[in-house]
Amino acid sequence: MHRLLFRRHALPTLVATGQRLAIGGIAVLGFALVGMVLLIFSFVVDMRTGIIAAAAAMLMFFGFWILPSLQARRSTANAQTPHEST
Question: Considering the entire predicted model, what is its pTM?
């Protein structure tokens, strides 16, 4: 995609598409990791333990990847807005 759009000066399109693809890829990776945890734990121990382990993996994925990204986005948005003086 970069090679096709680079010389056409379509940087905003390239960046926006890359961002959407990266977010989608991270979401798919998270679901795959949670699914693998569920599969492994359900075979090795039992289904109840697999569900608990998958829920823990989902919370860890959310806590380590999603929350920091949302917090960074919020702090960046707050830093870019002009502050009103009274």
Answer: 0.68
Within 45-61, residue ranges assigned H as helices are 47-61
In our burial notation (b when 16+ CB lie closer than 10 A, e otherwise), range 11-29 reads: eeebeeeeeeeeeeeeeee
Q: CA 66, 72, 77, 80: dihedral to nearest 10 degrees?
A: -160
Write out the two tokens for 51: 């569900």
CA 74-32-49 angle, to 5 degrees, is: 105
pLDDT per residue as tens digits for the range 10-22 = 778 888 888 899 8
